[in-house]
Amino acid sequence: MSEINESTENNRLKIQTGIDPNFLSATLTEDIQLTDAIFDLFDNSIDAARNQITNDAKQKTLKDEFGLPSNYSGYEITLTLDTDAIAAADNCMGFDKEALKNEALYIGRRSDHPFGIGNYGVGLKRALMKAGEEINVTTENSHNRYEINFNVRAFGNDSDEAIYAIPIKKTGNLGTTLTVKSLRAGIEHQLKDQEWYNNFIKEISIRYSIFIKKGLKISVINNHLNQTNLCITPSLPDIRDEEPLPVSTTTIPNINGVNTYIKTGVHGDYRFKGELGHNQTVNTRISNEFGIYFICNDRVIVAHSTEENHGFTTQWHNEYAGFACIVRMVADSPSQLPWNTAKTELQTSGSFFLHIRKHIEPLAKDYRAKAKKIIKAWNNPSIRGLADSERKRRFREELGLPAIPKKPISQFTTRNSNSTQNRNPEDDKNRKTNGNSNVTGNHNNGEAKSHPPSSSTKKLISSDSHSNKLNTILPNDFPQPSNSQNLNNMIVEAHNMNFTESPHAASMLYRAILEGSSRHYASKTGNFNAVKDHFYSKGEGKGKNHSDEYKKAQGIDLTMTLKWLNDNTNLFPDPDRKTLKLCLKSVLSDNQKLNGIVHCKSITNEAEFRIIRDKSLELVRFFITEAETKGK
User: Fold this and answer.
1) Three-state SS for 495?
2) Is there a contact between 632 and 438 (Cβ–Cβ < 8 Å)?
């Protein structure tokens, strides 16, 4: 017996129980797309930013209505899609020594980030495996900087490859850069595909919309396509708080550690027929944004769904047009949230989600019932044959809405607002008649010369104006000066230039129009010297020891005019003053960016230019209209 035991002992086999690296890689990555893998890298950076915010004594108390951080300003993520590598860089706190050693590349451990958007520690590793073979990580916090180089095969515990972090010299730039090289087959092809890339940018604008609204900057550089998307803009719709259909809200507190907030109403950019600002082109353009949105800890998981498994249990009908339902789920522990690990879908069959879903169906039906009343009121046979203004008055009266204000101010939409107006030929005739009127007065110490608001100025902004996805720099009906050939020529070109094709050239032309229209306004309204006096009495020229001769020859520029106007906002017509003050504030903020583009110190893109243009367009209109009606 002892001989048998000894023989057995000597001939026993060691059974391998490790995980083959190829199996691990295939299992983790076969069901996710490249887009989702890259988003795992973004999520990792956002968790780091959130940790830094919640650990900062000054910032941790700044929370939104859902108890989440309200401000990510100063944090940036930059993704570079290169010809042979993918790199994601952030300026967050970097990994500390213990986290780098025990957590950063550990697979399968639950995330302990409070209110995190990671889950089982899979995301970062899965993203690296999906993209390529060779990995480089550099990370720096306030104490250390490390560099790591390894092959993804090292993730398998059958691998003999060890992963080491090497201390390197600090640079003072906190954050982490993850670079994947030796890209896998098919990855480079996707990066070169324009359609894939366009959809990728669109998905970023949806999935990270709330973080971007809170100040996070996400930029993408695609060297395959020679395209750069800086400061991607959010595209999550807001819900209108005003008439004619009230917002409905529901709170479902603390089910398994998850608080749920449901808000239902009209898409922020949608207007019913008969409403001020109704624009069927806009309604058609945003129609693919109607539906239900599910958001977990500020991360959008499901967007514009009209599927039964998400709670939209009836067939879509035109009477649901404009319907938006935003469901926000918040949990300290991300493992309690009903999402899959790829954060691409919800676990719709679980008891928690089923409980949430039953609240959504009646909200959708209630929206349809109220929308039907609005549609029926507008199509009422008794008002169909009336003039448009009278039909709208009767329409509002039937719905019990307040009468239309006599001098409505602009209704700015949340995204891509681009106010336009229909010019009245009589107004044009009046402009030419009034174009030679003389205005005199003294301009001491930068005091503004005031004028009674003109009739055309009062009509400057109309509530019938609404975003129409204008892709030219200026709308075709934008006013043109009759006594400034250079400015007039620039405006004509801006009527026809498509900025989506040439955002840099458009930015430079628009900057020139801002400069030219502001100077034209100051000159023609008799405030040229007032602007200059303000510069020397209250502005940057106050400390300059310029001679009287130099001051006399001194011209004015956009910045000087803006700062003078900022101290003289009484010049804005009363009904539009609030709107124009907001425009002025935006131009003061964006002018540095525009100057950087003109001097080749910064770059821009279609989305960024649209925002700058939309926020400032009515101020340019004011400059030109005032110069025309009160011009000397």
Assistant:
1) helix
2) yes
- Measured between alpha carbons, how far apart are the two ends of the chain, in Å? 120
Q: 506: exposed, middle or buried (C-beta count within 10 Å: 0-12, 13-18, 19+)?
A: buried
Average pLDDT over residues 261-283: 92
* CA separation for the pair 446, 469 (Å, rounded): 39
pLDDT digits (tens, 9 = 90+) for 505-523: 989 999 999 999 999 999 8
How far from chain centre, in Å, is Cα 104? 30
Distance CA 588, CA 511 (A): 12
What's the rounded mean pLDDT across residues 486-493?
87
Q: Do 68 and 46 contact (CB within 8 A), yes or no?
A: no
Q: β-strands 132-140, 165-167: how paired? A: unpaired
pLDDT band of 267, cuts 50, 70, 90: very high
SS3 219: strand
Give, as one character, the DSSP assignment of residue 74: T
Q: Is 70 left (phi over 0), alpha (psi -120 to 50) or beta?
A: alpha
Beta carbons of 395 and 274 less than 8 angstroms apart: yes
Question: What backbone torsions phi and psi does residue 398 show, to the nearest 5 degrees?
Answer: -65, -35
Candidate ranges 56-65, 393-402, 592-601; pick with highest mean pLDDT: 393-402
Show Cβ contacts of residue 443 under 8 Å, excluding neighbours closer than 6 positions.
449, 526, 527, 528, 529, 530, 533
DSSP β-ladder status, 323-331 and 76-81: unpaired
Rounded distance, CA 624 to CA 627, Å?
5
CB atoms within 10 A of CB 380: 14
The winner for highest mean pLDDT among 263-267, 307-311, 624-628 is 263-267
| The predicted structure's pLDDT at residue 469 | 56
Per-residue model confidence as pLDDT tens digits over 600-629: 877 788 888 888 898 899 999 999 988 888
Is pLDDT of 418 > 50?
Answer: no
The widest CA-to-CA distance across the chain, in whole angstroms, is 123
Burial 350-362 (b: 16+ CB within 10 A, else e): eebbeebbebbee
Question: Taking a C-beta distance cutoff of 8 angstroms, is the pair 268, 277 a contact?
Answer: no
